[in-house]
Amino acid sequence: MSTRFLRAAATLLFVASPTAMTFADAPPTSDPSFRLLSGFDAPGTFPTTVTSANINIQPFPGVSFDGAGEDLLKITFPSAGPIAWTSSRNNSGDTALSIGPFDPNDPLYYPPNDFVDNYQAANTNTANPIDTSSNDLSTLAWRVNYETGALLATTRHNGVDDGYTVSDFGSPEPVGTIYGVSYFNVGFGQGWGFRMNDGVFANGGSASSDLQTGAVGAAGGRHEASFNVATAYFPYEQGWVGAWVNGAANGAATFAASADSIHASTVSWNSGIATVQLPGVDSAGDGMLFVAASNSSSTTRLTSAFADGSGGWTTTIRLDEDADTTGQTNLDSGNDFQFLYIPYDAQNLIGGNINGDTGASINAAGDGFFDLTRTGTGRYALSIFEDDGQTKKAEDDGTLLLSVADTLGASSTIGSRSFLSYEYDSVSGDFIIEARELISTTSATPDDVFGNEFSMVDTDFYFAWADFANPLAPLAALLGDTNNDGVVDTLDIDPFVLLLTDPAAYATAFPDVDPLAVGDINLDMVVDTLDIDPFVALLTSGSLASGGGAVPEPGSIVLVVALACGIGAATRRMNRC
Question: What pLDDT digit, counting tens, does each position of 539-558 carry?
């Protein structure tokens, strides 16, 4: 049974009240039918499309930085879509997020709207997770998981002063403004929920991922901090291309997890710098590569990925507080990262590659629905418009995803050491994007008590708008386009025959094409000789003419069909030949 069918069935298994339901057995750990959960879909909607959220993480004002009270946090979800998000655990710098609470309109399925120290449901009753006497309802959701997709986060505050104090220098002194970096980790995820990859109701584990938020710069050995973020989940099964790359110094990369279409040769390491080369993709104009650190330690990393002229991207991961402020030092270890490729032809995409010096678009999609202006060094005002091209969208309409796409210098072969954030300005209706870099950790006139001195800096970057109502989606495969060139014409005949007669050879020749998406012309979930007649109909239809191809002669079609039938006769159903 296909997972697509199972999910469709699961949406029908809705019960008005969860409190009286129990599981006949614990959810299985492998079969995708776990999403039926013994006849009751305990969590809410399983995310098979992009979904994103704005998350406010507010520490209790005036507490000691990395000291008593710093874990007193109030976590709220002011807006999300098309599927709601929630959280079952938090402490300073770590938040356990889940998607699809059972009842997204009931506040009981979210963290308490109050400052709570290390809020976490302590339920261990896996046979009956809906036992409200021992479990908080915020656990009834799908725990975010790096095996199933990409997880991106963007800092949603251009510097914040929460009244933190430190006593490093005698009496308590104010920390001042904190600039943050946010990303999801690999190898460390706590917090109760239903795991996306195996359906087990557990306290993290098995590829569960936590959101990490950290303060940039030297901070007396402190790294974790709390501030507002924007997050987004891109499921691999929807067709998104990405991977979670294990850190290394040299040689071929290995992955903690990846999309099925990613091959081992996609990423390689050289002196701690990674090169990402996607088959059939030209980084100069085909799309954007969003990158983020994924290390599970509390030390903060900065990431960048720029088109390097080879058709791929050079990615650099470095410690945020490196004393070498020239930026030439990068990591040979602890440089785990993830990447997500967003092509410019993705559906509903508003975004692009921005020249940091001018604010102009190097490449863009949906450019009739955004306006971006450089208003000063490292500062950019971005307007996102409704379908009318005039009315500005507001913060509650979606999130911004940002990624540095610049080199360290004009002639550099490694990535920029800058970092990005944004903040919504309700007066202008613009999203204010800012780029900074740490220029000193020992300044005589520091920005804070630790000696950190930051500078605004012009930085090339990628941005994508993740709309709550109209989420991003990969460009749908074109039925019949078996050579993957964007049109259905006579050039698709030979690949179609190859797909019918030698699927393994077709997969080798077209590794980035889903055979079912292009070859299942009659939509019966299998590619076989029953697809020949509708394929011929596609070739001879008006759709072919609009694609610019030449209508094949009937005789050539007959020969192709005969060839397909003849070669496949031993192994395929021949009732149409």
Answer: 776 443 333 334 444 445 55
